[in-house]
Amino acid sequence: MAIEARIRHNFRNFELDIDFESSKPVVGIFGASGSGKSTLLHCVAGFIKPLSAKIAVNTRVVCNLPGGTWSAPERRQLAIVTQDPLLFPHLSTRGNLTFAPGGKPALESDRGWKIVDVLRIKPLLERRANTLSGGEKQRVALGRALLSKPEMLLLDEPTSALDAELAREVMALLLEVKKELKVPMLFVTHKAGELMALADDCIVLDKGKIVAHGAPVNVLSRPRDIGVANLIGVDNLLRLRVVRHDEHGGVTILDLGGAELAAPLSTAEVGKPVGVGIYADEIMLCLEKPAGLSARNALPCRVVRVDAMDHEVLIRISVGATEMLTRITPAAAEELNLQPESAAVAVIKTSACHLLG
Asked: Pairing between strand 354-355 and 273-278?
């Protein structure tokens, strides 16, 4: 996939001014409420006609304003899935999937049945939409979008109206769509875990402007610097390779690049990367490895940076080839006398390692 978007548009109390390109399979759009995420997506979809814009999907220009190309939404070969599945309640799942022109042959094709299988909606085909759960409705909405054979799938916070369990189910399905159907996506979310799990590239918006662009693990590694710390909830977002599973010990071992981290046992494939979130205040620092410790991780580390902020001290450490942020009190910092290049030991409980996908 390749997307190019240069958009400028003025609203009454808001200005969208963005410029980015990406060739990654899934591009995430991240930011707080009101930052312009959905507005950007609607410009790409063609629901908003900007004052000035060039938007291209796979080198095909769908918008070049003022004075140039303007493709209507139905001609852009894009499909959008919103927070509301927007199903016809009186129709069956099959009826919703085949409502659009060409929908019936699309469903009956080999690709159509593959979509049904991946989304696990075959048992739902004859049920009316008003009898489906929230998660089932979102699966049907995804199926309807994919049956239109879009060049790109536009996702506008598709899990925000779902509870945590259903949100995880939809995210698992999106990962399956990415893996099995290989449909490119432009994905709006305010959840860092979803961004880490699904996106290959991301842009962070603030007040209609891009404040960061790059791989999620890199962009979100310094959330305070780009003003999204309150959205992330964890201070350390890592992408780590699975080394092995220890079912007897109840842990999955992850590679820190010269060191190993024990996380809760997962079903992730060995050799594949997974997202991990760790709160800075759940990493304890000591000068020597403690004895008789229940925490599975007591990792030699090196201090990279020390920052005193109000009533806390933020210490960036290097464990193997991986940097992490820890948070301790000024009294603890004074007692430990940690300085850049100081040696220490980072103690992390297995339960403090939150797997994000």
From this structure: antiparallel
At 202-217, the pLDDT tens digits run 999 999 999 999 988 7
CATH number for the domain including 33? 3.40.50.300
Domain boundary among 230, 250, 277: 230
The tally of domains found in the chain comes to 2
262-270: long-range contacts, CB 8 A cutoff, minimum separation 24: 262/296, 262/297, 262/350, 262/353, 263/350, 263/353, 263/355, 264/350, 264/351, 264/353, 264/355, 266/242, 266/355, 268/242, 268/355, 269/242, 270/242, 270/243, 270/244, 270/245
Q: What are phi and psi of 98, to 5 degrees?
A: -105, 10
Please indicate, yes or no, whether residues 211 and 250 belong to a single structural domain of this protein.
no
Owning domain of residue 296: 237-355
Q: Distance between CA atoms of 3 and 236, rounded to whole angstroms?
A: 29
Backbone dihedral angles phi then psi of residue 291, each to the nearest 5 degrees:
-100, 155
Given the DSSP bridges, would you call strands 152-156 and 78-81 parallel, antiparallel or unpaired?
parallel
Closest by Cα among 230, 202, 231 to 217: 202
- Tokens (6 digits) for 275: 């997202």
Q: Is the pLDDT of residue 284 over 90?
A: yes
**Does position 341 have pLDDT exceeding 90, yes or no?**
yes
> Which residues 6+ apart lie within 8 Å of 56 measured at CB?
2, 3, 4, 5, 62
pTM: 0.72
pLDDT in tens, 184-202: 999 999 887 788 778 999 9
